[in-house]
């Protein structure tokens, strides 16, 4: 398995870092094809925008090209499908979620020189466009629509409750390692829903290279091992979580699980 470190992601565009992550999770990821397709889209965009002189009009033309001509779109029917987290699949099917669509658009836009960056807003990934001397513009990469601060406040209240306030920290550009870390969590959740436990286990092992001994990640690993019938390892992981987080509500439930599994193992032996 690849070992991925923060400095690798900082040296890459987000889409390239995501491809490295995708490859580490699933060796069948079409990395070379995806990189070639990203480069092809950049070249096609350069030709399509060549007649535009005004930078703002060029960017609007890029959004039209991306969402209408190329028909990239948010996957409304199967939002949590794991394919939406793999860049090669997003490029092939032209469907994704905010972070994967945003990574592709960000790659193309930055290659064309646009002042675009990624933001991990509490509810979803956003793109931030900063023209010199002007107020930032926020774009929802799921559909390419501009998002007002009023809408962002509403999203935040819906996510955190009526007392939540929109703060500048919510809208600061995010470094690639942080985005990749959240991407990894999304991939793991999707793979667990699909009961693809071997790939989900790779996600957990990768996460533990970034944050060793994270009790919540180890708890999730225990669940995966249990599904893979590796009960002894699952028991060890569950017990680690119980010892590290005794006051967590899940600890009491896991104690019952550990007792039941331990009795089953004793009976089998």
TrEMBL record:
Coiled-coil parts of chain: none
Signal sequence coordinates: none
Pfam short name (any one): Transglut_core2
Superkingdom of origin organism: Bacteria
TM region(s), chain numbering: none
Domain Protein SirB1 N-terminal: 34-184
Family per record: Belongs to the UPF0162 family.
Protein name: Tetratricopeptide repeat protein
Source organism of the structure: Vibrio aquaticus
């Amino acid at each position: 398995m690849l070992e991925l470190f923060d400095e690798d992601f900082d040296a890459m565009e987000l889409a390239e870092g995501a491809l490295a992550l995708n490859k580490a999770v699933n060796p069948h990821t079409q990395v070379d094809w995806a990189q070639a397709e990203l480069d092809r889209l950049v070249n096609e965009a350069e030709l399509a925008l060549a007649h535009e002189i005004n930078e703002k009009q060029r960017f609007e033309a890029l959004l039209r090209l991306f969402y209408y001509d190329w028909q990239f779109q948010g996957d409304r029917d199967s939002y949590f499908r794991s394919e939406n987290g793999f860049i090669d699949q997003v490029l092939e099917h032209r469907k994704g979620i905010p972070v994967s669509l945003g990574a592709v658009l960000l790659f193309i836009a930055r290659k064309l020189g646009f002042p675009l960056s990624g933001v991990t807003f509490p509810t979803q990934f956003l793109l931030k466009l900063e023209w010199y001397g002007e107020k930032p513009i926020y774009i929802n990469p799921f559909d390419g629509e501009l998002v007002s601060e009023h809408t962002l406040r509403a999203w935040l209240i819906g996510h955190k409750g009526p007392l939540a306030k929109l703060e500048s920290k919510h809208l600061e550009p995010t470094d690639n390692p942080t985005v990749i870390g959240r991407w990894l969590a999304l991939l793991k959740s999707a793979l667990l829903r699909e009961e693809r436990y071997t790939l989900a286990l790779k996600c957990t092992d990768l996460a533990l290279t970034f944050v060793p001994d994270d009790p919540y990640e180890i708890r999730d690993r225990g669940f995966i091992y249990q599904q893979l019938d590796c009960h002894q390892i699952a028991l060890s992981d569950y017990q680690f979580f119980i010892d590290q987080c005794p006051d967590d509500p899940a600890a009491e439930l896991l104690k019952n699980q550990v007792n039941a599994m331990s009795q089953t193992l004793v009976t089998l032996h």
